[in-house]
Amino acid sequence: xxxxxxxxxxxxxxxxxxxxxxxxxxxxxxxxxxxxxxxxxxxxxxxxxxxxxxxxxxxxxxxxxxxxxxxxxxxxxxxxxxxxxxxxxxxxxxxxxxxxxxxxxxxxxxxxxxxxxxxxxxxxxxxxxxxxxxxxxxxxxxxxxxxxxxxxxxxxxxxxxxxxxxxxxxxxxxxxxxxxxxxxxxxxxxxxxxxxxxxxxxxxxxxxxxxxxxxxxxxxxxxxxxxxxxxxxxxxxxxxxxxxxxxxxxxxxxxxxxxxxxxxxxxxxxxxxxxxxxxxxxxxxxxxxxxxxxxxxxxxxxxxxxxxxxxxxxxxxxxxxxxxxxxxxxxxxxxxxxxxxxxxxxxxxxxxxxxxxxxxxxxxxxxxxxxxxxxxxxxxxxxxxxxxxxxxxxxxxxxxxxxxxxxxxxxxxxxxxxxxxxxxxxxxxxxxxxxxxxxxxxxxxxxxxxxxxxxxxxxxxxxxxxxxxxxxxxxxxxxxxxxxxxxxxxxxxxxxxxxxxxxxxxxxxxxxxxxxxxxxxxxxxxxxxxxxxxxxxxxxxxxxxxxxxxxxx
Length: 553
Known about the structure:
Belongs to the binding-protein-dependent transport system permease family. With about 550 residues, this protein is mostly helical. It has 25 helices and 2 strands. Helix content is about 70%, strand content about 0%. The longest helix has about 40 residues, at about 515-550.
């Protein structure tokens, strides 16, 4: 497993850094060439644009996400499960779909821009540029922020609030003295997630960026459009720098003492406060309505013949028969890639987490393994894609006149490398899920199994795996859904035979077939929703079976 990380993470990333020291013709030129690239005004402008987008997105996503999470965790708003479901919907769609929905609402021929085609006064928000990118990135990062804040806000001790009331502390005092400190870590993590995702995203700037270049789109143009790998490598490193800083800040914050519940903690009691419930309820349902409208526009875009010239209902866009479409082959490729990522990614992440926690490893080696497992979180997908192209595409390496064959070159251009890059991209979250589930297991049960003479393999299959089944399902679902919607690494690695549905959306939009692009995105959403539904049903079945066994015992 350590060898796998070396071959699939460290060696490709090292290749990226080495590429910086080469000129446009691939000759070693030292780091003077890299310095000249860094002084490139176009590159610096794109870097500044990316920072602006990420900062504004973080501010708005944190503000909206906190208020939404507060509404469904600390108020008596009705329909909390429905509200949480609407908040999670953007996770099931590629970021390009958020851009398409915004185009149909606020584009030059959008419903809002034209005032419902002349029935009302129109409003032009100048979508194509920073405004559109920020709006799309807020939609993209909003679910992650809500989920992190929601979990943190639900974990609270009612005893602290009762004591504060007894001491005469006001509501504002309880908010800033108890609530805010208790969610500090989640707030920092949510901010880092929003910043990193918006800084490194490619899909939204591609759709609604217009002439406002950002670093992610520049990386793609340099590597794919101009085959300038050296400049692409410099841009990739710039892309990775803020993500690494955010990762370090998040890890440093997680090491500081933070709020935790103990066995004596009382469940949170939400009091009656009509004004508060009305205010936050109106806000939450207003945001849910916005999400619903966005997905409604995705549906409208996919079934409209030619917007805005020919209206009506048509399923022609779902045939993908145009010269720019790839038929259902790309959709089947996505299903294959997502299934492979879910199976092998879950297996690898769980076994690695189990081995680090229960294996007979020196403490220093276990810490190195843990750090390696978290590191992919700080490497953007675009950087993984460029690194893989540079590392896997070459059949041999030359070091000071010594030619070394590249044993992994055979993976290049196959579905395997698409799966491997996606597993690596989303590995850290699933690893932490497995690690948390394993830590919750009772160590005494394993000691009893050893006393009874059961082998470690028997204990693993009859106790560890059944006990961690919900976590395994969560990991598999996370891998599957993200594999269906991601394009960041795959955009550099696909071939005509391994092209995925998410990448096809980009191709269709480039050719002006935005209706077919919307149809392809809608298929991705439907598959992800079905997978999520099956996941919920499996959890219910597992819970009923566990309850039945407990009653029998």
